[in-house]
Amino acid sequence: MCLSKNLPMRLAISLVIVTGAHAQTSVNQKEQPIGSLTQERALTSQETLHQFAQYLDIKYQLISNYPEQICDSEKKDKRCFLVRISFTPKHDFIAKNWRIIFSQMRPVKKVLSNDFGIKIIQGDLNEIIPREHFSGFKADNTYHLDFLAEHWQLAESDAMPNYYIVAGNLKPEIIASTQLNYDLQTQLEVRPYAPAFNDLEVQYKRSKTDKLPYDGAKQVFKDNRDIKAIPTKIQGQILPTPKRLKINQSQMVSLANGLFFDYQNLSKKVKPEDLDPAIKRLQVLGVKQNEKGIVVRFKTNPMLVPESYQLTVTPKLITIYGKDAASYSYGLSSIASAVHLSSLSLPEMVIEDSPRYEFRGMHLDVSRNFRSKEYVLKLLDQMAAYKLNALHLHMADDEGWRLQIQDLPELTQVGSRRCHDLTESRCLLPQLGSGPDDKANPDVNGFYSKQDYIEILTYAAARQIQVIPSMDMPGHSRAAIRSMEARYRNLMAKNQPEEAEMYRLLDPLDKTEYRSVQYYNDNTLNVCLPSTYAFVDKVIEEITRLHEQAGAPLAIYHIGADETAGAWLNSPACEGFVANRNNGIEDKSQLGAYFIERIANMLDDKGIKAAGWSDGLGHVNPEKMPNSVHTNLWDILSHGGHKNVHNQLALGWDAVLSTPDVLYFDMPSAADPREHGYYWASRKTNSRQIHSFMPDNLPANAEQWRDIENKPYQADDRLEKKVGKFANQPKERKHHVAGLQGQLWTETIRSDVMADSMIYPRMLLLAEKAWHKPQWEVPYDYGGLLYNAESEYFTPFAREQQRTDWQRIANHLGHNELAKLELQGVIYRLPPPGAKIINGKLHANVSFPGLEIQFKLPGKDWQTYTNPISVKAPVELRSVSHLGNRASRSQFIEE
C-alpha cells in the first residue's frame, strides 16, 4: 500500500542471540560463578545467561553508503551500504551452538566476516551463524561482523533495540546494552548501541552525486532567514485558515469571564451535547462556561453546505450560523484557535468559512507497533480541533492484528503479540525490535476489544469524524495467516477438521517462492481458497456489527490491496481455480485483481464503499469494480506520481491524495541522520513543505521541490499515448481529488511520545491544506504542461505570497498554537534552531518564531537568546517549549 513501511527503503536492526534449541520453558538453575563459561554451563545456567546478557556490549554502526567504494562491481545493482556489528563481552563465553537472530530491513547481500555467517529467517529476521572455526567469545575482546546490505541507510533510528539471548530451554534474556534510553531534554528515545554518524559525507549521503545539504545549524539558519517574528500581526489568526476572515485589530474581545451558550435557535438536527467536545476544548484552554460570560448564540442557516459556518465575534455577542453539528463545532474550534492564551482574548471578527475538500483524513498504523485506545482518543480530539473528519485506522498487517473478532480469538491471542516463539503458536515472530516478552511492552503488543472499538467509534462520531477500518489484504496479511494457522492446529488437535479448514488462509501444498517488499515469503492470502473469502466476509460482518452497535454505520472499508509480491504461482489450489476458468480467470497473473474486484463487490453488496491503495487498485478491470471506489494515491511526485493520480481520477473514483513526498509523517522532518523515520520518499518533510504543497496541480510542485537527492526533476503533464491506453492524460475539468490524508506508519514508532513528535505539528499543516486553498497556488492547466525548475508558471509574485502566508502561519504556531497543544499533553516536535556566527556574534533563528531559543557555551549554563551576542565557538543551541519542561535536540556551531 502506500506504506512507508513497505518500500524497499527500510532498514532496521533488532538482534536476538540464540544458543541451543528454540524451546520456551524456563529452567531454574543453581547460581553459577561468572568465569570461563563452558558449553554445558552456557546451556544450563539461567544466571550465567543473565550475566552474559547484562554485560555484553553490542554496537551497530553504519560505515558507508557509497556503492562505488564497497559494492561488488560485477553486480547489476550496485546500491548497497556497509554495516559493522561489534560484540564486546565482559566474560568468556565458549559455547559453540549459539545463534544470533536480528531484524535487518534491507536484505544482506554479502557477509564480510571470517567468524560469522548470515541467513534470512523470515521478513526482517535474520540469523547470524558462527563459522566452524569460531571458538567463542573471550572477555574484553571485540568481535566484528561486517556485511553489505541493499540500498542505503541514512538514519540512526534504523538500528532497532532489544537484542536478546536464549540458550536451550532457558528463558530469553534481554541484552542490556541494546535497550532504549530516553533523553531528558527532548523526552525522545536514545539508542546507546548505535553510535552517532561521524562522517556525513559517506554515512548520510547516498552517493557522491547526492546533493541534499545536511540540516546543521548553518543550513537551518539559512532556511529560516526569510521568516521574521511578527507577534503583533497574528492577533485573531486561525488554523486552518478560514475562507473569508475580516479582523478588527483595534477592538479586542476578552473571554476571561467565560462564555454562556444559548442553544435556543440551534438547528433541529443538532443536539446541544453534540457540541460538548468543542466546548470542552475551550475549557481546557482556560475559557470556562459562565452565565455571566459573553453569550454564544447558535443560529441556523439552511443555505449553508455541510460543515460550513459563519461566525461573528463582538464584545457583547458571539454568533455562529450553521446547519449541522460539524459546522457549529468548527465555529467553536475557530474561536479556540483565535484566542490568545496569555490574555484569553481575540479581536472582533467576521468569518465565512467552508472546507476546500470533503475528505480530510489522518491515517494511523497501530499494527506495526500498537497505540492504546487512550492515544487514539487523544488523536481524535486534535483532529476535531483542526477540522479533520476521517480517521483511517490501520489495524492489521504483517506484524500485528489489533481488533477482537467474534469467534476468531486467535487473531488477537496470537496475532496481537510478538515474542520469542519461533513456532508462532502463541505469538508472532519478534519483528521490529519488539523483544522476547509479549507482556513487557504495551507499545508493541495489544489489541482493541470489541468494547474498545465501539468506544473509539462513538468518540469519533461525537466529533464528526468517521472511522475507516483497515485490515490489509491479500498482501500484508501475515498476522492473519499465522493466527488462522494456530486456529487450524488447535481444531485439528480436537479432531474438528471441517471447522479447522473453514477460515484457513493458505494452501499447504503451495510451493511458490516469493519475497514481499518486507521480505516475507508467507504474508499473502491465497485468493483461490473459498475459506479465504469466508474469512474476509466474517471479518467484515463482525466489524459492520460493531459499527452498528456504536451508532456509526460502516461507510468505507479499506482492504489495502497492495504489494502481493508474486504469490500463488505454484499453488495447486490456484492451478485448479485457473483451469476451471472461474469468473473468467485465464492466467495466475489475474488473480490479484480478481481478489480486489470480488471483495470490492462483496462490500458494495453490503452497502459499504471499498477502499484501497492506488497501486493495487491500478491492476483491476474498472468495468468489474463498483461505481463508487475510494483510492488512496501514494505515488512519489518526483517519479511522475501525478500520472497515476490523473488516470485514477479519470475512472470517476474518489481519489484521496496520500502523497508520500509530503503527507507521510513517518518521514524525517529534517535532513539529519538524528531525525527519526524512514526516508524512501523524502528526507526532509517539514511543516513548511506541507504548507507549500499544491494538491490541485501536482506537476506544478516540480517548480518548487527537488527529488530525494535534492536534484531538480520535471513533471510532464502533457498528453501521452501508448498502444491501447493512455500513459498520461491531464485532468478533465469535471475531475477533482476528493481530499487529502496524512499517514503515520509505525515500524520505528515505539511510544506515544515518538508518535506525537512525528504527527505534530505536521498534522496541523495537513489540516490547513485540506481545508483552505490559498491564492498563491498555481492554477491547473487542463491542456497539460511541462513543469520543471526552469518553467515559470509559479511566478515570483505567487512565491512571495506563499512566503508571506507561511510567515503568518509559522508565527501563529510559534506564538499561540503550539502552546495549546502543550496544554493538552501533546508532545509536538520542537525544531532545532538555526545559527551562524557573524563577525564574532551569534545569530540564531527558529522555524516557528515565538519559541524560545537557548544557547550554551562550554562549562556554562543555558541562556536565553534574544539578540545577536558576542561568543566564541563552540556553541550549543536548542529551542524550548512554552512550559519550559522540554527542549529540541541540540544544534552545534563549531566555528
TrEMBL record:
Belongs to the glycosyl hydrolase 20 family. One of its GO terms (molecular function) is beta-N-acetylhexosaminidase activity. It catalyses: Hydrolysis of terminal non-reducing N-acetyl-D-hexosamine residues in N-acetyl-beta-D-hexosaminides. The lineage of its organism: Bacteria, Pseudomonadati, Pseudomonadota, Gammaproteobacteria, Alteromonadales. SMART domains: CHB_HEX. It is an enzyme of class 3 (hydrolase). InterPro entries: Beta_hexosaminidase_sua/sub, CBM2/CBM3_carb-bd_dom_sf, CBM2_carb-bd_dom_sf, CHB/HEX_N_dom, CHB_C_dom, GH, Glyco_hydro_20_cat, Hex-like_dom2. This is beta-N-acetylhexosaminidase.
